[in-house]
Amino acid sequence: MTTTLIYIGSFIALLGVLVTIHEYGHFIFARIFKVHVQRFSIGMGPVIYKRLDKYGTEFAISALPLGGYVSMITNKLIEHEPEVKEQLTEEQIKNTFDSKPKWQRALIMFAGPLANFLLSI
Question: Structure pTM?
């Protein structure tokens, strides 16, 4: 029984590290290309810890340590949620994910798998 719990705990911890590295890849390239990241979240379900950085990005850890996401500002988000637009600066509105050239969007999307690949070597 103890061994099973150790295996489960190790699996969850390893998965958490892999997800964090993967999402950090997306996050760092979004920052490089000046796309505003609303939230960097690890896990799903209720948020158990969150912190806001000086750039307005909320870092969150949720109760179920499976999965994660990086939420970037898009034109669709600004269009459909006026309260989001009110909280953004003109520069952030100008630098949405959609406004970037295709090669920058592709690099942001590819950066997650790239980060996992670099971790493996």
Answer: 0.89
> Which residue has 């269009």 as its token pair?
79
Q: How confident is the model over 56-88, as pLDDT tens digits?
A: 999 999 998 889 999 999 999 888 888 888 888
In Å, what is the CA distance from 5 to each residue of 29, 32, 61, 62?
36, 40, 22, 21
CB 78, CB 94: distance < 8 Å: no
For 54, half-sphere exposure in the C-beta direction (CA atoms, 13 angstrom radius) is: 0
**Residue 17, pLDDT score:** 93
Dihedral pair phi/psi, residue 79, rounded to 5°: -65, -40
Give yes or no: 90 in active site. Answer: no
Domain range for 77 is 2-120
